[in-house]
Amino acid sequence: MGILSIFTCPMQYISGIYMAKADNFQYHDYYQVDDLLTEEHKLVRETARAWVKKEVSPIVENACQKAEFPKQWIKGLAEIGAFGPYIPVEYGGAGLDQISYGLIMMELERGDSGLRSTASVQSSLVMYPIFTYGNEEQKKKYLPKLAKGEMMGCFGLTEPDHGSNPNGMLTNFKDKGDHVILNGAKMWISNSPFADIAVVWAKNEEGEIQGMVVERGMKGFTTPETHGKWSLRASATGELVFDNVKVPKENIFPKVKGLKGPLGCLNSARFGIAWGTIGAALDCYDSALRYSKERIQFGKPIAGFQLTQKKLAEMITEITKAQLLCWRLGVLKNENRATPQQISMAKRNNVNMALQIAREARQIHGAMGITGEYPIMRHMMNLESVITYEGTHDIHLLITGYDVTGINAFE
Ligand code: TGC
Ligand code: FAD
Q1: Which atom of ligand 1 is least distant from the CA of 273?
Q2: Total domains present in the chain
Q3: Considering every ligand atom, which ligand is closest to the CA of 157?
């Protein structure tokens, strides 16, 4: 194919809209990790994969180009059990294990990291703290609606001046008898523009961090949207602003105080990201493999050149290592034996792995790699957020460094 092939390829950009394109994704399991999964795991994964192919792939490119979160995804996410997969059935969750949760996140992020973000936040950062730190009334009030997607939540930890160091947060509340008065601001909050509730972490008058549920409609609570992102464009991001917000005391989590509260939620979300990013990596690898066999240069498919084979061989090697890492981490998590430090290692390794694969896949696609015709650039840009949120690449390295040396680099 010559240069004109760029225009004769099935590029489906018509009048500002990227039209639906067939999703030809094939899963890759080089080390037969599937043998380690149960039939239930495979069923959960197939259900999520089929939904992504049918409901996400046809519109995700357009949603990203327009920087919109397609709200119709919420109902489908609830139906496939992506909201609180491991929350017990009595509270509306799917009652699945941790590997199932990971597999769902992998399939969702194969579609788009922003889609996985929406499910991660709802499950690990909203339902998890309500389930783990909340009382019975709070669990009954919020969890079933969150599981059904009738209520959407967000998680407010990061502030304008406190990202990697959340312990320095300034958001605070004062005791006023049957309620507290909340003041402060959170920034970079996924789902905030449309969330019905926010799990907010703030300091009490003694300077201890506590969590509470702030509901949309409470006077003085606003959620301005953040515009102009080049990454996670199909995910809504915004702020949480609290101007003397009166929050009933019954909305405060009774079972946790201190930074370990929000960090405990992050363990669950980081675990989901470690799995999720395998999905993004697989999508990039799968597209690069297919493209390299079809694209002819110098009279033969570019897959026939040693340099292309090096890229592809290294990609599948790294994906395989990541799959095995996650499977083992899932087993440990099912047994309540996974340490936060092990989770940090997997989050850091797998996000970086996916980002490197996206960059290499982009090169294999040549000029086509920068277009919306292929998912590569979208994954690559998304992963630039994923490598920063839930603890940056370097913060996770320092967590491992502390664990292996016993010396805390944060002090
Ligand atoms: P440090 O003194 O080490 O710890 C304070 C207390 O917390 C405990 N702890 C943990 N507990 C549970 N899980 C963990 N992972 C924990 N890590 C620490 C610790 O034992 C201690 O407990 P106690 O009882 O002694 O009080 O805290 P530090 O201030 O030195 O900070 C440590 C550091 C830097 C590792 C931590 O602050 C950190 O992880 N920073 C990164 C911040 C971060 O990840 N923010 C994420 C915000 S949410 C987000 O990005 C959502 S994106 C969602 C999406 O769209 O998908
Ligand atoms: P900083 O903390 O300012 O870090 C800047 C740089 O300095 C990084 O490279 C970092 O590694 C480095 N650095 C910092 N401290 C050290 C150190 N001690 N040693 C060496 N290097 C260091 N937060 C939420 O609470 N809820 C959400 O839903 C949420 N969603 C997000 C969605 C998106 C799209 C993005 C981009 C972010 C989101 N975040 C959310 C915020 C995210 O968690 C923070 O961006 C992240 O924790 C890093 O904080 P920061 O951006 O302030 O960077």
Answers
A1: 56
A2: 3
A3: 2
CA gap 344, 339 in Å, rounded: 9
The span from the CA of 20 to the CA of 182, in Å, is: 46
CATH code of residue 28: 1.10.540.10
Ligand at shortest distance from the CA of 263:
1
pLDDT at 170 > cutoff 70: yes
Alpha helices in 28-95 (DSSP H): 39-51, 57-66, 73-79
> What's the CA-to-centroid distance between 122 and ligand 2, angstroms?
20
Helix 376-386 to helix 340-364 angle (10° resolution) is 150
Report pLDDT for 22.
82
pLDDT tens readout for residues 200-235: 999 999 999 999 999 999 999 999 999 999 999 999
Same structural domain, 126 and 103:
yes
Pocket test for ligand 1, best of 118, 239, 263, 347 (most atoms within 8 A of CB): 263
> Do 273 and 120 meet the contact criterion of CB atoms below 8 Å apart?
yes
- Any idea which residue has 């890492």 for tokens? 325
Q: Residue 160 domain-assigned?
A: yes
User: Same domain, yes or no, for 233 and 308?
Assistant: no
Site of tokens 């515009």: 227
Ligand 2 atom at minimum distance from 409 CA: 18
- On whether residue 410 sits in a domain, the answer given is no
pTM over 0.85: yes
In a shared domain, residues 142 and 242: no
Q: Tell me whether residue 411 is in a domain.
A: no
Are 203 and 133 part of one and the same domain?
Answer: no
Q: Residues 9-67: pLDDT tens digits?
A: 334 555 555 555 689 999 999 999 999 999 999 999 999 999 999 999 999 999 999 99
CATH code, 165: 2.40.110.10
> In this structure, is residue 203 part of a structural domain?
yes
Residue list, ligand 1 pocket, CB within 6 Å: 117, 120-121, 155, 157-158, 164, 166-167, 190, 258-260, 263-264, 266-267, 269, 340, 389-391, 395, 399, 410
For ligand 1, atom 23, which residue shows the shortest CA distance?
Answer: 260
Query: Are residues 272 and 247 both part of a single domain?
Result: no
Q: Whose atoms come closest to the Cα of 226: which ligand?
A: 2
What does the DSSP 8-state code read for residue 19?
P
390 labelled catalytic: yes
Supply the range of the domain harboring residue 213.
Answer: 153-251
Q: What is the pLDDT of residues 137-149, one digit of tens each?
A: 999 999 999 999 9
